[in-house]
Design goal:
Layout lengths: L4 H11 L4 E5 L5 E3 H17 L7 E5 L4 H13 L2 E4 L6 H11 L1 E6 L1 H14 L8 E4 L5 E4 L12 H7 L19 E6 L9 E5 H14 L7 E4 L6 H13 L3 E4 L6 H11 L3 E4 L1 H16 L2 H7 L5 H16 L6 E5 L5 H9 L4 E6 L6 E5 L11 E2 L3 E6 L8 E7 L5 E2 L3 H7 L6 E9 L5 E6 L4 E2 L5 E2 L1 H8 L5 E9 L2 E8 L9 H16 L9 E4 L19
Parallel strand pairs: 1-11, 3-4, 3-5, 4-8, 5-6, 10-11, 12-13, 13-14, 25-26
Antiparallel strand pairs: 1-2, 6-7, 8-9, 9-19, 14-15, 15-16, 17-18, 18-20, 20-21, 22-23, 24-25
């Protein structure tokens, strides 16, 4: 049985008391494990004064920062349920989610509050449950419907001294860790006002995810990490916050948009032991910095040379990549989409420390994953402990079917949305992932595409656009692509990989014609593409950097 999330913190906080825990990169907030626990204790008092009781829902909406993490842990330690809301949602949608979630309080960042304030002031009467709004900037009280007179965390001084007359110490760390089946988190997967889907996750789910992380990717106290994924997403919460912090690591939060220049600067200074990202990041680096060298004829000969020459060349390429990420990298975790086959093979050849992760918010978020030493090429890893997997087909090893999951990681349902919950599960209790794939005898998962993306061919064949895109993205001049169906024919939309200003020159058009010919030579007749259409702008993406396929037809 996995350890409870707070069992980790009951152990690591006293052991790492004076060591750094949370830091805003290029910011002012900086917590040791001891000062983190003390701030949590002060917020516990503030929440009580604001009328927040055990089981109440408390929302957090703001950019990544140390105080976001402090508020999250404080809400849970208080006995509340965290409602995580993505900071990029529109103000009207945020209000709608606060209403739908029955949030009793909101911790909000200044960037969000600037746009949210006028909408909230117009619609505050429609939020009868929301008693207070607290700033993530300094934990000051922005709105106080209960008229408690509290201005913020400073009001807790007298109560804090009364509760801890001898000062706050390691002996005061004893968070509840026996409530595995209590609701811990409501994570909204969409800002839609129509039928919001708030994924309900228990302590068992997040604790099981932590157990898998520590089992397969052990970390060590004092290691450092740059947090750049949105904390409002379950994957960001787990991989770049709860998992490293519960192991005693030091987290640096990027409060700004993670541009390539900012990331490279942060990696060079922080020297992270782990990076969690989408395939697009490593693919861009390989295409621009590695492949132009590796694909040269002489280099290719050396690459495959015997007597240790090939190994030496590969070590040099590996060293260059590691240096780009700060030079102390133990794990490079890739999730959210399949990695390009050519990039994957390069990483395998040089023994780069990459790992794959597969999951969805409804599994808190991990379903499968593994480290490079047990990685099977083109897989999404194997099913993780505490969970089972089933392929909805007569032959799960060879015939594609929907991937079904059940076990510790799986949600209890969608908050106040029984119909969506019913549709998400089979009659015998398996979660429908919406992904199509097969497994092998060792429970490795091979994803073929999304159920909703599958195209039915003219003769009844199942066509998985992701498989076609995988091949097309590996061709010269292609940065990314989407395959769509138009009037019974397949069309590939391509955003080209070009240096400098984008111009659709005759040479680029000719290159795409050649790509189309090569593509159709390696595709079955029923899934061949009729034409390639060039796109002037990069495809719009979700916060997890997945292409918003529904925008393209």
């Amino acid at each position: 049985m996995p350890k409870h999330l707070f069992t980790y913190f009951n152990e690591v906080i006293p052991a790492m008391w004076d060591n750094p825990a949370l830091t805003d990169y290029n910011g002012t907030d900086n917590y040791t494990f001891g000062s983190l626990a003390q701030q949590m204790a002060r917020l516990d008092i503030l929440l009580s004064k604001l009328g927040i009781k055990k089981g109440d829902h408390v929302a957090i909406c703001g950019r990544n920062c140390a105080n976001w993490a402090v508020a999250y842990l404080a809400i849970l330690a208080h006995g509340g349920v965290v409602v995580s809301v993505l900071q990029d949602f529109k103000a009207e949608d945020i209000v709608g989610l606060l209403r739908h979630s029955d949030a009793r309080a909101l911790f909000v960042g200044p960037y969000v509050w600037k746009n949210l304030q006028p909408v909230y002031e117009q619609q505050s009467d429609s939020l009868p449950e929301l008693n207070a709004i607290v700033s993530l900037l300094d934990f000051s009280v922005i709105s106080d419907k209960a008229a408690t007179g509290l201005t913020g965390i400073a009001n807790t001084d007298a109560d804090f001294q009364q509760r801890y007359p001898n000062g706050f110490s390691k002996d005061d760390i004893h968070y509840r860790d026996d409530n595995f089946d209590d609701l811990m988190l409501i994570n909204y997967t969409s800002g839609s006002m129509g039928a919001p889907k708030g994924v309900m996750l228990t302590y068992r789910s997040l604790s099981g995810n932590l157990f898998s992380g520590h089992k397969y990717l052990p970390n060590h106290p004092g290691q450092r990490l740059v947090s750049m994924l949105p904390l409002a997403h379950a994957f960001g919460q787990l991989a770049e916050f709860l998992f490293p912090l519960s192991g005693g690591c030091h987290i640096y939060f990027l409060a700004k948009t993670p541009t390539p220049s900012l990331l490279l600067k942060a990696f060079a200074e922080v020297k992270p032991y782990m990076i969690v990202t989408v395939p697009l990041v490593i693919e861009k680096i390989c295409r621009k910095s590695v492949f132009p060298i590796v694909n040269k004829r002489m280099f290719r000969l050396l690459w495959n040379a015997p007597l240790g020459i090939g190994r030496a060349v590969k070590r040099k390429v590996k060293s260059k990549l590691l240096k780009a990420f700060g030079g102390h990298l133990h794990y490079f975790i890739v999730g959210g989409a399949a990695i390009n086959p050519e990039v994957e093979q390069l990483l395998l050849d040089i023994r780069f420390p990459f790992c794959v992760g597969y999951g969805m918010t409804e599994c808190g978020p991990l379903i499968g994953g593994c480290y490079i030493k047990e990685f099977v090429s083109r897989s999404a890893g194997h099913i993780l402990p505490g969970n089972e997997i089933r392929i909805d087909s007569d032959d799960p090893y060879n015939t594609v079917g929907e991937i079904l999951v059940r076990g510790d990681h799986v949600m209890t349902g969608y908050y106040k949305n029984p119909e969506a919950t019913r549709q998400a599960f089979t009659d015998d209790g398996w979660l429908r992932t919406g992904d199509l794939g097969v497994i092998d005898k060792k429970q490795n998962i091979f994803i073929r595409g999304r159920n909703k993306n599958m195209i039915l061919g003219a003769s009844g064949q199942n066509i998985y656009p992701e498989e076609i895109e995988d091949k097309l993205n590996n061709m010269t001049g292609v940065a990314e692509s989407i395959v769509v169906e138009r009037e019974g024919k397949l069309v590939a939309l391509v955003f080209p990989d070009m240096q400098g200003e984008l111009t659709f020159s005759p040479s680029l058009v000719e290159l795409m014609k050649q790509n189309l010919e090569r593509l159709n030579q390696i595709l079955p007749k029923y899934s061949q593409v009729t034409k390639i259409e060039l796109q002037e702008k990069e495809f719009e993406k979700t916060p997890k950097k997945s292409i918003k396929r529904f925008l393209y037809k």
